[in-house]
Amino acid sequence: LFDENASCHFAIGNAYSENIKGGAEFSDEDKKKIGMNNSIIHVDFMVGGPELSVIGVKKDGTQVQILKNGNWAI
User: Fold this and answer.
1) Which string of DSSP letters, residue by residue, matches 15-42?
2) In this structure, are residues 15 and 36 in contact, taking their beta carbons and an 8 Å threshold?
3) In the chain, where are the structural domains located?
4) Which three-class secondary structure state does DSSP give residue 13?
5) How far is it, in rounded angstroms, from Cα 48 to Cα 71?
6) What's the distance, CA 62 to chain centroid?
7) pLDDT of residue 47
8) 13 and which of 18, 34, 39, 47 could share a cystine (Cβ 3.0–4.6 Å)?
């Protein structure tokens, strides 16, 4: 996953419920209620470059620069 972690990525297709707290126990109906996509495919797209900046936000609201100008900042 180094390529995904060194760029910004998004995906279309099947959603992964294990990425949501408690999601591993969701029924198909629970997933549908919250708008999770159910598909036989999942495709990742990576984007990046010198203009890319990624800022993470901690639970307390503190911001942490992850990528700055396309380079690791941590």
Assistant:
1) --GGGSTTGGG--HHHHHHTT----S-E
2) yes
3) 2-72
4) strand
5) 10
6) 19
7) 80
8) 39
Contacts of 41 (CB under 8 A, 6+ apart): 13, 14
In this structure, are residues 19 and 34 in contact, taking their beta carbons and an 8 Å threshold?
no
Instruction: Evaluate whether 38 touches 32 at the Cβ level (below 8 Å).
Output: yes
pTM of the model: 0.52
- From edge to edge, which strands make up the β-sheet containing 71-72? 54-57, 63-68, 71-72
The amino acid sitting at 69 is N
What are the helix and strand counts (H, E) for the chain? 2, 5
Helix, coil or strand: residue 51: coil
pLDDT in tens, 35-54: 999 999 999 888 888 888 88
**CA 55, CA 65: separation in Å to the nearest integer?**
4
Letter string b/e over residues 12-29, b meaning 16 or more CB atoms within 10 A of that residue's CB: eeebebeeeeeeeebeee
